[in-house]
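Colleagues,

For the teaching module next term, I've prepared a clean inverse folding example: a structure given as tokens, and then the sequence designed for it. I'd like students to try predicting residues themselves before seeing the answer, so please don't circulate the second half yet.
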């Protein structure tokens, strides 16, 4: 049955393939005219996320256009705090906005009782995607990691310095641990429900891991992600998990050594030779083209993509960006990148 397995799953199980699978973080989104058209029709970003027909369609748009090896569920990491009872809205040009948690009284109001009810449309979207994607395309479910999600819950939106979140974690670590534990619990059950609806691979996004010092990376990024993966593995040991502790620097060594995950997502700052010698012997790697090279295109993009393939393509590897696609990206550049990766041979 081995060769019948999808390329993404094979790479995550440690196989070195003739050419790596490719998918891109944020492969569905505003850089695609067909996405913008559907979002206008839906009314808002959250209406897209919570309408299974729209979410299925938006997930499939980049698959049809580019033939990626994997589809990623169209949703957002902030549906988890939303389902725990927080108010969530997305305003044009301002990103996500939440009513920031102020302290323990707000924490105590977060509850799991409506959680799966509120997320039911997401699970329906997962089943709908699984029923319609091409047989060779893997379906990735995802969630945000506790540190990154907690930062949005405490800052009330995006942040430059994470001052409120860090003040909470440093001054009241027991209270911050309670919030983290709740997110571990909620995220694990959310991911298990995605698997049961049809997700074949999972990714945990810790987009802001790089804001933490090394001791805090271990405590607030690595430990809670490990707790989630351990929990998911208890019921679904066969489903591979990619973790993406973005910009955590030499902290990547701690992730590779603890190897509780199957794949490790690298940001664009990770040196390729270092990743090859220090990390790839222990774990499948994913990454790490600079998203701005995909905007620039041309020789700069081709050379950088080829360099990544030549250094990391000789071990278990998944081609991706070092962070999500930006809205300014010309779709033709994405098409050219997919061709480069699909034509490369080790
Ligand atoms: O990758 C995909 O195609 C699947 C969909 C996906 C979205 N968000 C859709 C989205 C995924 C995997 C995410 C994850 C996510 N969301 C992260 C982690 C990854 C990362 O980029 O670091 C984070 C931090 C968020 C929170 C979030 N959502 C922010 C900060 C913003 C505003 C900034 C932005 O890019 O617009 C969003 C909105 C969002 N999530 C959009 C999309 C397509 C744009 C909404 C729109 O205006 O149409």
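(Answer key — instructors only)
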């Amino acid at each position: 049955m081995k060769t019948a397995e999808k390329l993404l799953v094979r790479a995550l199980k440690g196989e070195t393939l003739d050419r790596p699978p490719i998918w891109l973080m944020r492969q569905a989104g505003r850089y695609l005219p067909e996405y913008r058209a559907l979002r206008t029709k839906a009314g808002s970003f959250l209406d897209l996320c919570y309408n299974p027909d729209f979410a299925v369609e938006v997930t499939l748009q980049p698959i049809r256009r580019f033939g990626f090896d994997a589809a990623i569920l169209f949703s957002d990491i902030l549906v988890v705090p939303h389902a725990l009872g927080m108010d969530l809205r997305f305003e044009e040009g301002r990103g996500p906005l939440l009513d920031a948690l102020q302290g323990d009284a707000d924490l105590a109001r977060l509850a799991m009782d409506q959680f799966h009810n509120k997320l039911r449309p997401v699970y329906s979207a997962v089943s709908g995607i699984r029923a319609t994607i091409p047989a060779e395309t893997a379906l990735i479910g995802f969630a945000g990691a506790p540190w990154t999600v907690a930062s949005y819950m405490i800052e009330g939106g995006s942040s430059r310095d994470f001052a409120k979140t860090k003040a909470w974690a440093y001054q009241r670590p027991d209270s911050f641990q309670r919030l983290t534990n709740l997110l571990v619990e909620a995220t694990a059950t959310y991911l298990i429900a995605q698997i049961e609806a049809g997700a074949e691979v999972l990714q945990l996004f810790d987009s802001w891991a790089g804001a933490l010092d090394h001791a805090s990376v271990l405590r607030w990024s690595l430990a809670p992600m490990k707790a989630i993966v351990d929990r998911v593995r208890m019921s679904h040991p066969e489903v591979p998990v990619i973790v993406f502790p973005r910009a955590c620097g030499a902290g990547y060594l701690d992730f590779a050594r603890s190897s509780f995950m199957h794949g490790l997502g690298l940001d664009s700052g990770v040196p390729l030779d270092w990743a090859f010698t220090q990390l790839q012997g222990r774990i499948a790697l994913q990454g790490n083209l600079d998203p701005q090279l995909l905007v620039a295109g041309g020789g700069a993009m081709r050379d950088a993509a080829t360099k990544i393939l030549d250094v990391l393509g000789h071990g278990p590897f998944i081609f991706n960006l070092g962070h999500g696609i930006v809205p300014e990206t010309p779709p033709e550049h994405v098409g050219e990148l997919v061709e480069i990766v699909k034509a490369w041979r080790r």
